[in-house]
Specification:
GO terms for molecular function: acyl-CoA dehydrogenase activity; flavin adenine dinucleotide binding. Residues 123-218 form the Acyl-CoA oxidase/dehydrogenase middle domain. Residues 230-378 form the Acyl-CoA dehydrogenase/oxidase C-terminal domain. It is a single chain. With 381 residues, this protein is an alpha+beta fold. The protein has helices spanning 8-34, 40-49, 67-78, 82-102, 105-117, 232-268, 280-309, 314-339, 349-357, 367-377; strands at 121-125, 141-144, 150-161, 168-178, 181-188, 194-196, 210-221, 225-226, 270-271, 274-275. The radius of gyration is 21 Å and the shape is globular.
């Protein structure tokens, strides 16, 4: 795998995370996955490594890196397991980053120390049972109390990552605070009226935490408004643009993991008197898988470089997310085919990669949404 273009710090980070994923995640994640069990010990160790603080400044307890550094770490984790990778991605991109980007100093002081250290996780509630890609169809409401000191929130949120763990500290939800006015409001975990439904029975990402949420007359202080009133939807469109780069990095890791496992299996598996790696048909399949993973990596790194440089990255992020997610799905399909019957067995990582890949074409904006973003940025309206 080619890592040309990383600076010395990024290369050192990549090697550290790759070693952690290989030595600490790989031996135990299969059991967590089979049990649909959240890997608290792995998350704790990621916090000790400083991974949750990667894109945040040192003065607030972060590692002083940037979004590109975060994506390097996410890709390396996803080469071994996507449940662990999405836990990190969502905790930062959707959990802590909105507080950092839009929070008041008081909100930052209260929430960020634990989030940046990985001691606590945060979640982001945008999607609703009847509003997925059409996030503008939000039905959750937040009204001011008669004395104007509290928000009273009612509604439901769906598919919310990191929302029900024992270490989840808060959930930022979007809600209608007026006609066609969407705002973001912080709801601390355990607030009366906030119900976290049982975890979903998912096809993939089985060791990550995902729940539906119900808010019934949930009351929080008016100071829990995150950012400017009425700007919640715009804020999270910006957050999702960044998050698409991270999902592209995760998808690249999934795609590369399929290559790694297929090379290893093809060299060990014999058929008709020779390793299947010696047959041109298998060689071409793996070569095409490597091509897809490589170009996906180039795409997310380009988008991340644009973000870090402070130039427009919206189209590049959409291209990266679209291409990398489709590469992951195709690589997972081919890797399973190369493994034959063993690819259908959960004891082999490619079975997990296959189950985990499809959501990448859906989460944080479907492939169709990415195509709309690209087309509109090209002036096709």
């Amino acid at each position: 795998m080619d890592h040309f273009g990383l600076d010395d710090e990024q290369s050192a980070l990549r090697e550290t995370v790759a070693k952690f994923a290989s030595e600490r995640v790989a031996p135990v994640i299969g059991e967590h996955y089979a049990k649909h069990e959240f890997p608290y010990d792995i998350v704790r160790q990621m916090g000790e490594l400083g991974l949750f603080g990667l894109p945040f400044p040192v003065e607030i307890g972060g590692m002083g890196g940037d979004y590109a550094a975060l994506c390097v770490a996410i890709e390396e984790l996803a080469r071994i397991d996507s449940s662990v990778a999405i836990t990190l991605e969502a905790a930062i991109s959707l959990g802590a980053m909105p507080i950092w980007r839009f929070g008041t100093q008081e909100q930052k002081d209260r929430w960020l120390p634990d989030l940046v250290a990985g001691r606590k996780l945060a979640a982001f509630g945008l999607t609703e049972p009847g509003a997925g890609s059409d996030a503008g169809g939000t039905r959750t409401t937040a009204k001011l109390s008669d004395d104007g000191t509290e928000w009273i929130i009612n509604g439901s949120k769906a598919f919310i990552t990191n929302s029900g763990t024992d270490i989840t500290s808060m959930i930022t939800v979007t809600a209608l605070t007026g006609p066609k006015e969407i705002s973001s409001i912080i709801v601390p975990s355990g607030t009366p009226g906030l119900t976290v439904a049982p975890g979903y029975d998912k096809v993939g990402w089985c060791a990550s935490d995902t729940h539906e949420l119900h808010l019934d007359d949930v009351r929080v202080p008016v100071a829990n408004l995150l950012g400017e009133r009425g700007r919640g939807f715009a804020q999270f469109l910006a957050i999702l643009d960044e998050g698409r780069i991270a999902i592209a990095a995760l998808a690249t890791g999934n795609a590369q993991g399929c290559v790694d496992e297929s090379v290893k299996y093809a060299q060990a598996r014999h058929a008709f008197g020779a390793p299947i790696a010696s047959y041109q048909g298998i060689q071409f399949m793996i070569a095409e898988m490597e091509e897809r993973a490589h170009t996906a990596r180039l795409a997310w790194r380009d988008a991340a470089a644009r973000l870090v440089a402070g130039v427009d990255f919206k189209r590049a992020a959409a291209i990266a997310k679209l291409h990398a997610s489709e590469a992951a799905v195709e690589n997972a399909r081919v890797a399973t085919q190369i493994h034959g019957g063993y690819g259908f067995m959960n004891e082999f990582p490619v079975a997990r990669f296959w189950r985990d890949a499809k959501i990448l074409e859906i989460g944080e904006g479907t492939s169709e949404i990415q195509k709309l973003v690209i087309a509109r940025d090209l002036g096709l309206k």
